[in-house]
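lol forgot to send this yesterday, sorry. struct tokens for the thing we talked abt
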């Protein structure tokens, strides 16, 4: 089944009802730090474990597109200084998708995206990045800490 506004609300409510001790520990207090990779990774894990417990949520793609990343600031983890074609949050989602499917190389990810135009639209791609662009994004644009966050954040999904 597909995620609906109601099923998303159910998941959000379940997460909001978690006790304070279960919520992610961010690097700064009393409010969370929007640049905290520990907090971001924790959020991905919390949302994924709650998301996939819902009967309507069986799609990895819907989960990736529903990740709450609007608050995340990736500036410190973006090692490119000039203009870029793809947003860090979009790339983060794509690499979480790659991890969740267990693909070792970007070629499998590109092949997958090429066969899913609706997913590409949901991710915000006007054009699908090629394999070399994704490889450079992962190995040269993403910091080592951000790569680790994608890898460890995707473990529980």
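and heres what i got for the seq, position by position
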């Amino acid at each position: 089944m597909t995620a609906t506004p109601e099923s998303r609300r159910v998941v959000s409510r379940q997460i909001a009802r978690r006790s304070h001790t279960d919520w992610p520990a961010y690097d700064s207090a009393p409010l969370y730090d929007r640049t905290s990779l520990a907090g971001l990774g924790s959020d991905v894990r919390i949302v994924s474990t709650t998301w996939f417990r819902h009967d309507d949520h069986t799609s990895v793609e819907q989960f990736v597109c529903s990740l709450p990343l609007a608050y995340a600031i990736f500036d410190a983890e973006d090692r490119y200084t000039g203009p870029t074609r793809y947003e860090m949050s979009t790339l983060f989602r794509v690499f979480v998708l790659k991890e969740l499917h267990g693909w070792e190389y970007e070629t499998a990810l590109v092949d997958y995206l090429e066969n899913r135009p609706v997913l590409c639209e949901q991710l915000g791609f006007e054009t699908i990045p090629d394999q070399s662009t994704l490889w450079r994004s992962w190995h040269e644009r993403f910091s080592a800490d951000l790569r680790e966050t994608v890898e460890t954040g995707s473990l529980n999904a």
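Helices lie at 5-16, 37-51, 60-66, 88-101, 106-114, 117-123, 131-141, 144-153. anyway ping me if u want another try
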